[in-house]
Amino acid sequence: MDFSKKPMVEIIYRQSRIAKALGQPAKYSIIDFLLNSGPTSLDRLSKAIHRSKTTTCYHLSKLKSLELVRYETKTSGVIYWIKYEPELRGIIQALESYIKRAMKNIGSET
């Protein structure tokens, strides 16, 4: 038997990295806030998700590397927003729908 690792298909690899990021509450909160509030500053974002600016900046850098978040430097500071908003909104809505359905089913099983 050949137990050597086979290369993962690129799209599956990228999908799994995005799923992993969305599985982290701070990153999910950033995405959720940006989807609901639109482009915003680091200060406003860090206050909204109840994290320090340093921590928020760390999570934003990971989300930027996954191409989920974009930014622009302005005279007033850096502004962040969702890169592919319709697609990401669809993913978040699908997750919310799934969780609501799963929670409803859990309640009916007892």
UniProtKB/TrEMBL annotation:
Matches recorded under SMART domains: HTH_ARSR (SM00418)
InterPro entries, per the entry: ArsR-like_HTH, HTH_ArsR_DNA-bd_dom, WH-like_DNA-bd_sf, WH_DNA-bd_sf
CDD domains: HTH_ARSR (cd00090)
Residue span(s) of domain HTH arsR-type: 7-103
One Gene Ontology molecular-function label: DNA-binding transcription factor activity
Name the record gives this protein: HTH arsR-type domain-containing protein
Organism annotation: candidate division WOR-3 bacterium RBG_13_43_14
